[in-house]
Amino acid sequence: AFSLVAIPWLVIHLTDSTFVLGVVVAVAAIPRVLFLLIGGTITDRFSPYLVLTTTKLGYGCLTAGLALIILSGNVQVWIVVVFSVISSTIAAFSLPSQIAILPQIVRKDELQIANSITNVLTQGLMLIGPAGAGLTLAFLLESNNNGLFLSSESQELQVMGKAFLLDSATFFIAFALILRVSTKTQERTREDDFNLFDSIKSSMSFVTSDRQLFGLLGFFMVVGFITDGPSSIGLPSLAFEEFRSSVDVYGLFASCHSAGAIAGMVLAGFSRTEKLSFEIQLFSLAILWGLTFILVGSMTTISFVLIALVFMGTIDGILQILFITWLQNRTPIEMLGRVTSVMFFFGQILSPLSILLTGAVADYLGTSIMYMLCGTLLTSASLFKLIKTLTPN
Predict the structure, then answer these.
(1) Helices in 16-76 by DSSP H: which ranges?
(2) What is the pTM of this model?
(3) I need a surface site. Which of 4, 99, 184, 393 has the fewest CB within 10 A?
(4) How far apart (Å, rounded) are the C-alpha atoms in residues 124 and 41?
């Protein structure tokens, strides 16, 4: 969570450009998309447990390395790009393993509440982390400006370096905790029978043969194209460029979104929606999600933006739990990593383009206009799909 605040702040600090931030985030998104299919396949082949522990260890070492470079005062934008690219590559392996491991820990009828609990805990830390990072960094910088530290640009880098160092420690703690997790033993394909490309092909065949899964791919691509940009660079741009605020306001923005996500995940975890069509739930919630983007963009004061972000996070949280649980129930456990990676691959395939366009629109038209445009597109696309679902043929 410290990293989520510090990376955009670091880039803007080094370049003073939202567009450059968009370029950095877009470049970093490419390997996550490219390696998702391989990540899901490796997860199914070598077990989600092994992949999850390895990625957490990798995250810790990578973040510690960036922290040391920042503390040395030698950080440059290209170093941040390299860090983001490697981190994004690790994420391509981590994401499928996080979703695939849960059915190996709990019973099928416990999946929805289990997804709710794990995601609420994650979002709880996301609620505390960004605000804590923003307030801590702002306090240290304010102290620096008041003369308690040597006033220089290098002092600001020292503060950021310490934030990343703290972030790296959390990954090593996570690694130690995951070592204590017990999973159900799953029979694996013998290593001499394993073929990476055949395995990816089989997961593609599974998705295309499932009419409902395949039908949702196009919608996920559209939603990903509309929302990935605002989700990646929207909040820092809104805080730093639109409201001319400091890093603590950005931290509050991120935390309010997380607070809403927690509320949504709790609601989804304890709700019973089996009698409702998943597609009707999905498209209806996506319409509401789009309206919250318009709401965020139309607010003119920070306090109202914070309230709008809570609503946005709530819808986002409900959508996450419903989709993940639906996918886990619909997919054979031995293929869950691969099928998850296929769905997320198509959902994020346009992410780099989305981020670049979002950065350009935010630079030329303003972040508020960008949010309203994205919200209008998401609401329209979701309404079209809902009407089509309610009136087949």
Answers:
(1) 18-34, 36-46, 48-72
(2) 0.68
(3) 393
(4) 30
